[in-house]
Amino acid sequence: MKKTINKKNSYETAMIYHINTLTTKNTYLELGFNDFPEPQKEFEHYILKEYDLKIDENKINKNPLSKIIKDRHSAFKMNNGYLTFEEISQLLYFSYGYLDEEKSRRPVPSGGARYPVYFYIAIFNVESIEKGIYYYNATENKLQLIFEGDFRTELLKNILEPNSVKECSAIIMNVCSIRDTCSKYGNMGYKLMCVDLGHVSQNIYLLSSALNIECRAHMGFFNDYFDNLLNLNTQDESTLLLHVLGKGFDSI
Would you say residue 30 lies in a domain? Predict the structure, then answer.
């Protein structure tokens, strides 16, 4: 028998969460903000190889902000072309890197400056670097190879509507640390974490627009596969959003 979904109650869990995380004077005072751990700066990995990002502000200053915003869109077709390492460098650094030597400023706001979002990236077609799974270490501004090989086929098996992204050049896997934000803000921290991820996603889109890179955010994927692939502690960490990157047909 085919299972039917009661649409009236299909978001019941979301409603329970929403009601129980509303901020009132009492819940705010119960949190306290004096005794909470510092967020982790970076995830630790066994690094096979690493690359210093190549930053050039001139590459993103070619068009006015108004044009970049107007050109922003979600791509549905890519041409299996190659991105350059310089393009990937600008996109990673200006979307989530540290902007000062003190490592205190980033291009996005974050609730309580917890910055719970982390970047992994599957490289398929990027000039000058080999295929594999990389971690973006923002503290050191390096792209670190943690798994070698072409993961395209396996990743696409675990993404809904794979035909729409099968010609991409790379996939950013945005992982969020629940612990980083919720250790300070309790259950409300999950909402803040999702807001933070939205800020990051908009930066990725706008940088892609400025660099003439096709971009599409994807939530249609199997979380368990991606979390296991990246060896995440699934109690505290999870892959919440993908950004598919590539070249458009007018970029050939």
Answer: no
